[in-house]
Every structure is written in structure tokens, then in C-alpha cells.
Amino acid sequence: MGKDSKPKDSGGKGKGKQASSGGDDNASKGKGKGGKAADGLGTCTYVKARHILCEKQGKINEAYKKLQDGWLSNGDKVPPAEFAKLAQEYSECPSGKKGGDLGWFPRGKMAGPFQEVAFNTPVGATSAPFKSTHGYHVILAEGRKN
């Protein structure tokens, strides 16, 4: 009711924070309720994901190019087993030995941009490379649940 017409006005606790309303696309302060309910991506409580972590941008781009050349450029989804092989080859995270498997994790466990990308990447899809405080990542979302 009024969800589309006045998403900020009906909250009642604005107290003059209108200047920050321009950054809604990033939803960095959304804490999981950032208005993405229409597609279901931003509403789940847990996500299951694999990732590749590299300290250098060039290395993550090389791994991502292999994903593009093999699957993404054709519009195909990357099979988890193939993503796992690339994670074992490229990832500098200890999870790389397990094919980048992070298992199920709840909102609030992962920091900043990693959580945002993990919880907003559709199941079966692979994220574009992105930077976090730990380095450069590519995520494969494998599942979501509440």
C-alpha cells in the first residue's frame, strides 16, 4: 500500500536525512530490507555461494575471462563444478581448496560489498568482479533460503 509511490515518506523516522536518499541503488544501509522484494533477491536470510578471491585485479580479471569465454559470453550459467575448478586454480582464499565453497551464511556475517553482491546475485548466476577490503572477488550464487 503506497509502496511504489512513497517508499521513504511513510517511514516516520526521517529526521532530516533526505540528503542521503539519492544513493538507493547501492542499498548499502538497507540491512536486507532495501526495497528489492519485488524480485525476491534482497529478502532472503541466507545465501549459499562460492567465490574466487584474488589480491590483484589482473588475476581476478583473468579468472573472470575464463568464465566469460567458457559460459557467460554465450548467456550460459557457469556449472558449480567448473567454477570450483577455477576457484582452486585462482583463489587466494583458504576456501579455494574447497572450490571456493562458502556454504550457507546469514546476513551480517560477510562485510560490506561482499554481502551486498552475494545477496543480490540471482541463484545460478555469476557476479562481475568487484572489490572488497579483502581484495577482488567473483561470486557464484548457489542458493537462498529464509
From TrEMBL:
Residues 1-12 have a biased composition (Basic and acidic residues). Residues 1-41 are annotated as: Disordered. It catalyses: [protein]-peptidylproline (omega=180) = [protein]-peptidylproline (omega=0). This is Peptidyl-prolyl cis-trans isomerase. The keyword Cell division does not apply. Residues 44-143 form the PpiC domain. It holds the Pfam family Rotamase. Belongs to the PpiC/parvulin rotamase family. PIN4 subfamily. GO terms for molecular function: DNA binding; peptidyl-prolyl cis-trans isomerase activity. GO terms for biological process: rRNA processing. Its EC number is 5.2.1.8. Keywords: Isomerase, Rotamase. PROSITE patterns: PPIC_PPIASE_1, PPIC_PPIASE_2. PANTHER family: PTHR45995. InterPro entries: PIN4 (IPR043323), PPIase_dom_sf (IPR046357), PPIase_PpiC (IPR000297), PPIase_PpiC_CS (IPR023058).
